[in-house]
């Protein structure tokens, strides 16, 4: 989609809206456009767009990435970074001249080592160069360091501080999301004691290591940069669910399935996957998979009553009861009110189900009340729960949904 002449009338209209957002530095609208079909569309939009989405500015005063710093080569991780940088030849467009490719590889090396120097606690991992190269190819060298540095300090911080440990935790989340939608697929991996190892490179590189279509990769980065940091996990879950037939093929053993999942097909429905990932995120937000303590702290910082109520509703499963409902009894008024708003718009059968869930919530909240007081009294004193009003109409909850 790099050729303006190939754009449809709708795409041209969207492009003009994107450019207006860039000129106005309207980050909120830019995020919506980056998530919507086609993302930011063209690399000349991404040059300012990615900088705005990550750093909150649309220009920098100097080209830090191309600075010659004599001490870069003295860094203890320089050799590994350099070796990975020169192995990236296949990632470059076939039309790019050798001299230009080699120049970009040098810039890539500078970017990564600069980040490591400025952040001594970071330990380079193989795959981070794929992320930085994707940024470099999309927005050129001028602002690549600023964007990559921001990503290193945010989305990739946990990997740069403890690559394997944090990656394993995220892999486990993939299968937890899959379990909510397709138990059969989940049990396939559970039977083979799989922890979704096939997705390691997906998560560590934001798919740059496995996706060879650069335009689709840039589109995916549009989505990630404008979304919650967990989105690469939800995209992974969406991909696993999309490849259900291959996974459950009776003629394929786990070894073949693993090999297939490690290889991305040429025809990849990127927009459908993004839509599915967004649906998964909205239906099963990250908080319902979090540890008990993290849930409590997140609850105390909840921005709205409706968010709190929806979180409790989404968490309705026996496995997570104790963790979710240890937030003290006063929270459950909101869950019950939220149920009432659903009941009014559902069929009689669903209404009965919702009422039963509401009854179980009340019962369970009483059972864990003492547990909550013991376990979370310290957390509540440090992060006070919001003052809960005694009454609130279901209509007001609907407005906040």
Automatic annotation (TrEMBL):
Transmembrane ranges, per UniProt, are none
Identify the species of origin.
Trichinella papuae
Q: Which GO terms describe its biological process?
A: endoplasmic reticulum to Golgi vesicle-mediated transport
* GO CC, one annotated term: endoplasmic reticulum membrane
Bias kind Polar residues: ranges: 388-401
Q: Is Flavoprotein there in the keyword field?
A: no
- SUPFAM superfamilies, alphabetized: Ypt/Rab-GAP domain of gyp1p (SSF47923)
Quote one Gene Ontology molecular function term: GTPase activator activity
Map out region (Disordered) in residue numbers: 382-401
Q: Which InterPro entries match?
A: Rab-GAP-TBC_dom (IPR000195), Rab-GAP_TBC_sf (IPR035969), TBC20/Gyp8-like (IPR045913)
Q: Which UniProt keywords apply?
A: GTPase activation
Q: Which Gene3D superfamilies match?
A: 1.10.8.1310, Ypt/Rab-GAP domain of gyp1p, domain 3
Q: Which PROSITE patterns match?
A: TBC_RABGAP
Q: What is this protein called?
A: TBC1 domain family member 20
Against Pfam families, the record matches this protein to:
RabGAP-TBC
Q: Which residues form the Rab-GAP TBC domain?
A: 40-228
Decide whether keyword Nucleus is in the record: no
SMART domains, A to Z: TBC
């Amino acid at each position: 989609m790099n050729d303006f002449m190939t754009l449809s009338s709708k795409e041209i209209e969207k492009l003009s809206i994107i450019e207006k957002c860039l000129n106005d530095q309207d980050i909120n609208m830019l995020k919506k456009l980056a998530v919507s079909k086609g993302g930011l569309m063209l690399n000349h939009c991404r040059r300012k767009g990615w900088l705005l989405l990550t750093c909150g500015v649309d220009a920098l005063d100097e080209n830090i990435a191309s600075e010659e710093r004599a001490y870069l080569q003295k860094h203890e991780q320089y050799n590994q970074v350099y070796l990975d940088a020169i192995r990236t030849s296949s990632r470059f467009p076939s039309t790019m001249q050798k001299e230009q490719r080699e120049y970009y590889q040098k810039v890539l090396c500078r970017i990564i080592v600069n980040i490591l120097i400025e952040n001594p606690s970071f330990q380079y991992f193989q795959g981070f160069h794929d992320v930085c190269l994707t940024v470099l190819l999309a927005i050129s060298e001028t602002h690549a360091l600023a964007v990559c540095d921001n990503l290193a300090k945010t989305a990739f911080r946990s990997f740069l501080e403890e690559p394997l440990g944090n990656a394993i935790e995220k892999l486990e989340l993939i299968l937890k999301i899959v379990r909510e939608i397709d138990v059969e697929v989940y049990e396939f991996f559970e039977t083979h004691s799989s922890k979704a190892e096939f997705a390691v490179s997906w998560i560590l590189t934001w798919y740059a290591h496995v996706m060879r279509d650069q335009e689709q990769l840039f589109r995916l980065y549009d989505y990630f940069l404008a979304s919650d940091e967990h989105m690469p996990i939800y995209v992974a879950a969406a991909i696993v669910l999309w490849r259900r037939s291959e996974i459950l093929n009776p003629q394929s053993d786990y070894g073949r399935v693993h090999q297939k999942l490690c290889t991305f097909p040429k025809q990849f429905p990127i927009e459908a996957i993004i839509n599915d990932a967004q649906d998964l995120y909205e239906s099963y937000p990250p908080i319902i998979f979090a540890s008990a303590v993290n849930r409590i702290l997140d609850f105390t910082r909840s921005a709205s009553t409706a968010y709190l109520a929806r979180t409790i509703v989404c968490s309705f499963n026996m496995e997570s009861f104790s963790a979710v409902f240890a937030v003290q009894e006063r929270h459950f008024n909101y869950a019950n009110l939220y149920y009432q708003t659903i009941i009014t718009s559902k069929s009689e059968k669903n209404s009965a189900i919702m009422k039963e869930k509401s009854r179980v919530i009340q019962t369970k909240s009483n059972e864990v009340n003492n547990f909550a007081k013991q376990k979370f009294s310290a957390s509540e004193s440090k992060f006070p729960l919001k003052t809960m009003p005694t009454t609130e109409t279901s209509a007001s909850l609907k407005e906040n949904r």
